[in-house]
Amino acid sequence: MYMLTLLYGFTGTSLLLIDKVTGKRVCATIEYMAPYITAEAKFLFNVGGKVIFRQVETHRDYRTTMYSNLFKVSEENPKPKTMVWQIVKGRKNLPETMCRRLRRRPPVAHGTIKVGAHKDDAISTMHSAKLPLSKPGCIIGMYLLLRLPNTGRIVSCARIRKVVPKTAAVAFFHDGVKGRIGFNQRSEYDITDVHVSLTNLRSIASGYHVHEWPVPLKFGADENICGPSKVSGHYNPFDVDIKNSPPAGKGTEDQYELGDLSGKYGKLDNSNNFVKSFTDNNLPLFGIYSIIGRSVVIHRKDGSRWICSTIVPEGTLIRTVATFKSPVIGRIVMMQDAGDRFADTQVYVELNYANGITTSTSYHAWHVHVNEICSDFNGKSCACSSAGGHFNPYNVELQGDYKSQCNPRNPLRCELGDQSGKNGRLSIRSQNGDFSRFFFTDEHLQLTGNFGVIGKSVVIHAANSGSARLACANLVLTPKRTLIVNQWYNMTSARVRGFSRFTGDVEKHQEEQAFVKIRLQNLDRQADGFHVHEFPVDPTSNFPPCSPKAVGGHFNPFDVNIKQSPPAGTGTHDQYEVGDLSGKYGKLLTGKNFVEVSGLDNFLPVRGQLSIAGRSIVIHKSDSSRWVCGNIVESIMTSRALLMEARAMFTSGPVRGYIHLAQYRYPNGRLSDTSIVVNLNPAPGVPKSSCHNWHVHVTPVKPDGDVMNGCLSAGPHYNPFHVNVKEGYDECKFENPWRCELGDSSGKHGCYDIGGGKRFYTDVNLPLRGKYGVIGRSFVIHVANKGAARYVCANIRGRSFLQMHSKISVYKIFSKFVKSGFIFLYSYEAEFIQSLVSKVKGYLASYFNFTYRYIDDVLSINNPKFTDYLSSIYPSELEVKETTETNNSASYLDVMLSYDTGGHMNTLLYDKRDDFNSSITNFPFLSSNIPSSPAYGVFISQLIRYARASTKYTDFVLRAGRLSDKHLSQGYVCDRLTSSLRKFYGR
Question: Which domains can be identified in the chain, with CATH numbers?
Answer without folding.
Answer: 34-162 (2.60.40.200), 166-313 (2.60.40.200), 317-477 (2.60.40.200), 482-486+497-613 (2.60.40.200), 642-798 (2.60.40.200), 802-910 (no CATH), 914-984 (no CATH)
